[in-house]
Amino acid sequence: MADPSKQITSAVVSVEPVATTTSAGASVAVDTVLRTNDVHVFYDGVPAIKNVSMDIQRNRITALIGPSGCGKSTLLRTFNRMNDLIPSASMTGEVLYHGQDLYDPSVDPVEVRKRIGMVFQKPNPFPKSIYDNVAFGPRVLCMKVDMDEVVERSLRHAVLWDEVKDRLKGSAVGMSGGQQQRLCIARALATNPDVLLMDEPCSALDPIATGRIEDLMVRLRDEYTIVVVTHNMQQATRVSDRTAFLTVEVDEHDQRTGVVVEYDDTAKIFSQPGDPRTEEYVTGRIG
Amino acid sequence: MMSTHETILSPATPPVLGKSRRRVGERLIFAVLVFCALASVLTTVGIVAALLQPTIEFFSEVSPLDFFSAEEWAPFFADPSFGVLPIVVGTLSVTFWAVLIALPLGLCAAIFLSEYASPRVRRVVKPVLEVLEGIPTVAYGFFALTFITPLIRDNWPGFLGDPPGIFSAGAAGIVLGIMIIPTVASISEDAMSAVPGSLREGAYALGATRRTVALRVVVPAALSGIVASFVLGVSRAIGETMVVLIAAGNTPNLTFNPVESIQTMTAFIATSATGDIGVGTLQYKTVFAVGALLFVMTLTMNVVSTWLVRRFREVYE
User: Fold this and answer.
1) Distance in Å, alpha carbon of B231 to nearest chain A alpha carbon
2) Exposure class string for B271-282: b at 16+ Cβ within 10 A, else e
3) Which of B188, B186, B174 lies closest to B100, judged by CA?
4) What is the SS3 assignment for B274?
5) Taking CA atoms, what residue in A is nearest to B315?
6) pLDDT tens sequence for chain B (317 residues)
7) Which domains, from first to last, does chain B contain?
């Protein structure tokens, strides 16, 4: 169904405007990097999120907000197939990346994760040198690149170069939490992705380090598409262009499942939400 | 303003803080714990002290040069010869074969259990491994003699020369290796399982496969535990007596050839310390000298590996 030139196995992501037709029959515009069609994710057969259909737009920061346990992280992890690593997890529906189904059996999850980088809640640098951390992705993917150049460029992108350029061979574990998180961002950028998934990237950081990460996200927006899960609504208003509000729905069998209540421009979500549940959450009455 | 606060905060009658009193139970527990901690240290000191005196006396009668350079070990002969090399080489040869089998197999088993096995498989296999550690070594000795040795002899490829005899260093080494696989696997697996899952996730998110996660992230991060398991395994192999006594024969023989019968240092000590030799005789002191040398060898190995671990391990938080 996808144009062969846009196969995920090709080295360069096609950027020219292409409109492909999905199985749902809708047209994917050029600006849509990721699209979910009726995604359900189950853990041990129990649905964790259901009926998620949303488009992630290119060069935008999309925030996923909502109360704990509403499935924000689960949804985020469907975008780079990280849920594959959890044996009890399964899913239905499709996730289209530039029009191509990420879950198609012919798609290599390794290639998916190369294109779609991820940064975690707690900084998780490898107990190796700063250089080796950044070089890890290109090395395991056997990318034929000038490694010194990739490391420098990635660290510059993550606004960390000036702080670490004299100790690239030093251990990454001795850095501050904020530096470690920027290193993890640099590490994700080194494989040259076009999407960056961030799972509460600032929840383990102090306000100053948080501010630096947020500035960085805004800078990265010009070149990357960012999806960020956040508990912090101020953060969503400060950095994001689009916001999806998720919440937990409890059905008659007391089954708790995450759903996307509303997905719109951030300004609209926080000023004129269309759903009373969104309004209650963003005004701080629940959650 | 300040005074109102004070009146609110101070109660009408100030509370009485109880006098400090001696807590006998605390002191007792402290003393018991210190004793337990010291017990192993004191034992080590005791062993060194017990070894030292007869060893010094031994070297006043036999020159260290003879001890370490003569090629014949016949301390109980009418015309004794005290060249320790044959039994040192015997020990090293058996240990070499044991290590050659146990380190790769044990490490691979640990990687499988920690990184590849499903939780259900791990729940079954790990306890089984730990049960294997508890099998008496004499059972392994007969396993070598009645199963492994015949197996090797019956399937011996002719181009390798003569087949091993009933007693051989190789068969003993192989069984010793099988015996320490569980030690290596179990302790290495503990170290790998202790590596935080967040590091694995980080690697997977960068496109790493299971193999690269295991070899480039988990094994380096768990290195100190893995080396600890190696050291423990090798120490067991060097110190093991029963298997080599049964399967390797008991003939001092200066050779690295695995098909020949040899004697190890531990086997010498065990067979000599049976009460036939008089206390204070040169033969008696010989046993202690060999024991002291064995002690020094194991200690050196432990120190060197500790240093290696410090040098190469990756410290995660």
Assistant:
1) 23
2) ebeeeebeeeeb
3) B174
4) coil
5) A127
6) 444 455 555 667 778 888 888 788 889 999 999 999 999 999 989 999 999 999 999 999 988 888 998 888 988 888 888 899 999 999 999 999 999 999 999 999 999 999 999 889 999 999 998 888 889 999 999 999 899 988 988 888 878 878 888 888 899 999 999 999 999 999 999 999 999 999 999 999 999 999 999 999 999 999 888 988 998 899 889 988 889 988 888 888 888 888 888 999 999 998 887 767 788 888 889 999 999 999 999 999 888 888 888 877 777 75
7) 69-312 (1.10.3720.10)
Q: Give the DSSP per-residue string, B102-114.
A: HHHHHHHHHHIII
Write down how long chain A is.
Answer: 287
Q: Is B145 on the interface with A (CB under 8 A)?
A: no
Which amino acid would we find at residue A89?
A
Mutate to test the interface with B, among A9, A83, A119, A126 (most CBs of B within 10 A): A126
DSSP code per residue over B63-81 = -HHHHHH-S-EETTSSS-E
Strand partners, A198: A119, A228
Pairwise CA distance, residues A229 & A231, whole Å: 7
List the structure tokens of B46.
């005791």
Q: Which helix (H) or strand (E) is B82 found in, with range? A: strand B81-82
Among positive and negative, which fits the CA dihedral B249, B251, B254, B257?
negative
Supply angle C-alpha B134, B140, B144, rounded to 5.
160
Sorted by where each starts, the structural domains of chain A and their CATH numbers stand as: 4-8+16-282 (3.40.50.300)
**Nearest beta carbon to residue B314 from set A110, A118, A127:** A127
**pTM of this structure:** 0.81
Round to whole Å and give the CA distance between A93 and B113: 33
